[in-house]
Amino acid sequence: MKVYSPTLFVEINSSDFIFAVGDKNTNNQFNLIYKSLEPIQGIENYQITNFDLVLSIIKKNIYSIEQKVNFIFKDMVLIINNFNCSFINLTGFKKLNGSQILKENITYILNSLKSNIDETENKKTILHIFNSNYNLDKKKIENLPIGLFGDFYSHELSFCLINNNDYKNLNNIFNKCNLKIKKFLVKSFIEGSDISNENENLDTFYQIKINKNNSQIFYFENDSLKFEQNFDFGSDLVLRDIAKVTSLKIDVVKFFLNKIELHEDISKDEVIEKELFNNENYVRIKKKLIFEIAKARIQEFSEKFINKNINLKSYDKKDSVIFIKFDDQSHYLSFKHIYKLSFSLNNNVTIKFLKNVTIEKLIFNVDKIINYGWRKEAVPVTHAKKSIIAKFFDALFG
Predict the structure, then answer these.
(1) Which residues in the chain land under pLDDT 50?
(2) Is 238 exposed, middle or buried (CB count within 10 Å of its CB: 0-12, 13-18, 19+)?
(3) For a tag site, which of 160, 174, 176, 182 has the least CB within 10 Å?
(4) How confident is the model over 278-327, as pLDDT tens digits?
(5) DSSP alpha helices (H): ranges in 210-358?
(6) HSE, side-chain direction, 13 A CA sphere, residue 285
(7) pTM of the shown model
């Protein structure tokens, strides 16, 4: 008889606290048995600004969940998407002079790289470590080349870190709820792994998430999360531009945009129909003008996110695939042609649009990573300092 032992998941993002509970059925299949959302409060500018308020919201929801699912949780899985994580990519080397690569050679490189991070980033905590690149004699190797012969080996690790204060505050909040954070996951990693799994033979790409008032870009290379950046503007900026130039109320702009689709071939004489003014005073406005206003702002988005983003200069953008996702589906329907046009200025770039991942699918992906690991993650998401090195090498070498 299967023992009832559900898992609690909590996500903290820019708009909500998301609570979910999953369990495996008698066939060992994972099912979501509970979910709820609570509007975000007490977290601003990517940090906790009101500890007591965040604690109160989480404690209230945990208590309610335990009553509904008839289970007292001792630990949980935390997914974060509302904190400023930093990323460092380091490469270690070993001269072989024709000799064989030994496990001890790689152990030394990895130990040295992590020690370097511990020393130079002592105000931060490591959340993820990825084996992002193996190169033997300047040739990319897909798997650890233990036992192969060569002259020169390089091994790159990608580190994802969070500020110690944020890490301690989050742990403290859940400790006060009598919960231990069993796994600590960055949502960009979860979403990147899902894109990789859904797109065969694609392991390097960008994803841009455009919300109403904020945006985010992350970069996945060789199935490793290597970069993430948050922006304090989003799709509402386009609407405000249109409202300002046309002197229309933003509600009117939203209403008629829901009824039209803007594209490059719009006639210069075509106007917004009177019935689309939602009972407001009619003003003769050309659709081409709306297109040009939106295009100017969306092209600026493409520059800030990708084309002129100095933080991405070290990453190769040739033949790139860029996935774009919107939290507002109506914004996508109105402006998708302009986004594709603006982000495809480089002919080597492929633009693909994504639908928002459901809570069910996200939690299902998280459960798979927790139980089976990720092919490029070097360290299980655990933070017992006395065992992290041991777990690191256990995960790497088996």
Answers:
(1) 380-388, 398
(2) buried
(3) 176
(4) 778 888 999 999 999 999 999 999 999 998 999 888 876 667 899 999 99
(5) 236-246, 250-257, 287-302, 329-343
(6) 24
(7) 0.88
Any long-range contacts for 32-40 (C-beta under 8 Å, 24+ apart)?
A: 32/359, 32/360, 32/363, 32/364, 33/6, 33/69, 34/65, 34/68, 34/69, 35/359, 35/360, 35/363, 36/61, 36/64, 36/65, 39/15, 40/12, 40/13, 40/14, 40/15, 40/16, 40/82
Helix (H/G/I), strand (E/B), else coil: 374: coil
Number of Cβ within 10 Å of residue 39's Cβ equals 8
| pLDDT for res 82 | 83
Q: What is the pLDDT of residue 180?
A: 97
- Separation between Cα atoms, residue 50 and residue 44, nearest integer Å: 9
Query: What pLDDT sits at residue 396?
Result: 55
As to burial, measured by CB atoms within 10 angstroms (0-12 exposed, 13-18 middle, 19+ buried), residue 304 is middle
Tokens of 109: 């490189």
pLDDT of amino acid 386: 41
Q: How far is CA 349 from the centre of its chain?
A: 20
pLDDT per position as a tens digit, 231-254 = 999 999 999 999 999 998 999 899
Of 159, 155, 132, which Cα lies nearest the Cα of 145?
A: 155
Q: From edge to edge, which strands make up the β-sheet containing 350-354?
A: 224-231, 215-221, 205-210, 321-326, 350-354
Strands 205-210 and 215-221: antiparallel
Beta bridge mates, 18? 11, 37
**What is the structure's pLDDT at 387?**
45
Distance CA 284, CA 359 (A): 43
CB 79 within 8 A of CB 187: yes
> In the structure encoding, which two tokens stand for residue 78, read together?
């935390």
- Which residues are bridge partners to 238 per DSSP? none
Q: What's the token pair of residue 351?
A: 């633009």
Amino acid at 216: Q
Place of tokens 């304090």: 232
Strand order in the sheet with 180-186: 30-39, 16-24, 7-12, 75-80, 180-186
Q: What pLDDT is attached to residue 265? A: 87
